[in-house]
Amino acid sequence: MAEAIIGPLVGKLQELAVSEARALVAVNDDIRSLRDKLMWMQAFLRDADPRRRVVPDEASRVWLHQTRDAAFDAEDAVDKYFLLVDLSRYPSWTRTIIRLVAGFTTQISVRHNLSCKIEAINTRLENIVNNKDKYKHTEDSTDKAVVPWRASTTISVTPTKLDNLLQSPLVSREDKHQELDSALRDGTDRQRVISVTGQSGVGKSTLVRDIYERLVIKNHFEMHALATFPPYSSASDILKLVLRVLTEDDFTLSRKEVHKKLHNELKGKKYLVVIDGEVSTTEWKRILAALPYVVGSRVVRMSKDKPEEPPGNYEHRVIQLDRFDKNATTQLFQQRVCREESSPKYNEAVRNGVGKDYQQDIFDTTEGLPLAIVLLSGLLRTKEFPIEWSAVFDHLRSKQSKRLDSILSLCFDDLPYDLKSCFLYFAALPTNMLIEAQDLVCMWMAEGFLRPKEGMTMEKVGYRYLKELVARHLINLEPLHEHSPEEELVSIQSKVHAFLQIEAQEVNFVEIHSSDDIPSLSTARRLSLQNRMEKYAALTSPMPKLRSILSNFEKEEISKEDESSDEEESKAQKSASICLQCSHHGTKRKEEVIKSCIWQLLQESKFLRVINLQGLEVGDKLPDEIGDVVHLQYLAVTSCSLREIPPSVGRLSNLQTLDVRDTAVENLPEQFWKIKTLRHVFGHRLILPKRVGNLRNLQTLDTVKPDDYGWDRNTLAKLINLRSLFIWELSKDHVKALAIALKKLKHLVTLTVHGDGIPSSVFTSSSLRRVEIMELDGMLDMPSEPEDIKSCLPNLLLLSLEKTKVSQEFINKLAELPFLAGLTMDLGSYKDEKLVFFAGGFHSLRRLTVDLVELKKVEIHESALPRLVDLDILDYSDDLEIEVIGECDIIDKLCSDDENLCKKIKRSNGLPRT
């Protein structure tokens, strides 16, 4: 895949030619020559990549392989050059001496070596081109007839919020909706397992999630949790996910402690647990054994294969999902192919054209598989109707492969070239996992896939690419949670993921360690660790070419009881040479081997740009050698027992992102806060010192709190490009300093403040006009009600309040905000006993979440909340009264979901609603 290899390299060569123009006079011509050759090669590769899937051609395969190898060697030469001449690795007091020595000896030698390597690569590329022409066979008529699909040249999606791209549930499943709803709520006391089965892509997860999210279902059960996880995770990891959803808490517990706490949480309470992922028979039995027997409880499982019968104390209900018929296929396609940004007249023409001219083509191409229907609609919504549609169907009819494979190949080939590397990156991530959009964009940026363009930052370009993938239905956007609106999550369907993994391995994009066999890693550029049983096995191999390493495991604390259990299991298995999951080596020995693996990785993989280790233990402290990996741009060590980052991290002069969430790290070394390239810092209550460097590139601080010396008006003054700021434990002594700092943070989009006090300027400062998401937890320090909130926060979309103690007058001001779409009023957010939603207010509000436990009366006037589609009442008091003046559709829906709440609702004429 051309873009993943040559695109970033061409940018590096351009950077090298400019930055070293004077020092590399002798080699500059060779650098430019190499860059030009690679740009030509890139153009040829773009044609050859889609052709190889249509007509297998060994000669072309050899040519592609040799070109990739040459590009890899060029990247190695450039990266090694930057590594050897980078003086930022040395302490400041030695830099002057080093510069003198390096200027006369080292750099001369380094540049000479670079010159020789580039010259050799140029010659090698010339030979590759000559050999291609020399050995090229005469094309027969079949080859001439092959016309590879031309990729799109533009982004089809218009600028919009990711949330606007959320899709409605699958149509034509009403009978299955009713069957699943009945299986969940039919009043049978006996505990039941419900198996939803069907082939991959038939819509199992979509159906179950749609039912699960309905308020009437959640109100039927006292406890409910949905766990999503990679294939064949352990029962312990799955149960830990279930417990985390139930308790809404982050914790570190041993396996035995998880089982005990889960049992206590569910005991005596009617519960619903949904298991969304492939589980082995053994692990499934362990999951059921860990769940307590409670009358009326339900466990839902999704499976591709025929489900095995559960233990005798469970009743078993199977719901089989099949492909759609022609009419249902047409209905789903029409729903997904139309675009909001298109005119109603155009969308109507598309719907009519689908029904009259393309119904049979769509059904024959997709064979009624919902995944294929959605993918085809995502492709065709980027094409002009009807001019370009016929070409798509003609191309698909010419393919000899399976229907879904043909659609996937065409969807991939049609992507604009810049997007292909970004999409292919999902192959390095586990399937059936929720991935934070901001993490993905930061990794794309570190990999060199993103460049500023059209006045947009790299981050904006990345989000634009992400929106395009969502709009094309290649990845899924998860509904935003009202309590964490800034955490946009995406996922990828397993069949699409499998296609990407095949494509990625074909072009040597990433090596994946997911089984007992360890791939050859001496030439690996990227490594994804997905073997949950032997997490560290692949790290014992030297990886001198490695640029990126990724893992995504659950954090686990092993107790003595767990160790005994592991030891008994390990005796029944053949022991591997090194198996860090088997604890018969002892905890101390295990820690030593882990440290050795991490040290070896940092010593031998000097070209690393991305380190993303989730759930992989690295010890209490990162090795000092982390400071020698000078190419590093993305460093994430999360979900582990890490406590300390060494001062040597300050030598990472290219670092853009640091992520230490779900660790014990609180203090970062002083040197870290002076890295000028920093763009995003993620942690949990990280201590932000009173003085930091000139961090003008910094865009995200998540989450920070003041140090012992406190903050003053200058602490945040230089962080002028901050877009997301999350502050924790803000004392009243720091409220004034924050109020002053906010006046300079004119680019803020997301603001979260938790503390004893919150400055009134969050609603009165004109500098916050770009803020779209605001979360406040603490007493609002507001001497008087603001006169005009809407002019200070004209772009506010989502607002969450807790313990703010605002008044009715303040709520009336919020009702004037023009674009407020989501409002959460949690416990203590409101100080009066009566809450009124007046007519004409909150005209853009779509989601309202409110805790009414401290209120005695809620009054809703007719035409208030006219666009509300989701009303979630967290809790309410026994003596609560809800008065509705006039008609209100959302209240009618609420009555159908909660019978007890319905009894508290009265109309203005005093008659209860029946």
From TrEMBL:
It comes from the Eukaryota. Keywords: Coiled coil, Leucine-rich repeat, Nucleotide-binding, Plant defense, Repeat. Gene3D superfamilies: 1.20.5.4130, Helical domain of apoptotic protease-activating factors (1.10.8.430), P-loop containing nucleotide triphosphate hydrolases (3.40.50.300), Ribonuclease Inhibitor (3.80.10.10), Winged helix-like DNA-binding domain superfamily/Winged helix DNA-binding domain (1.10.10.10). The keyword Nucleotide-binding applies. CDD domains: RX-CC_like. Belongs to the disease resistance NB-LRR family. This is Uncharacterized protein. It comes from Urochloa decumbens.
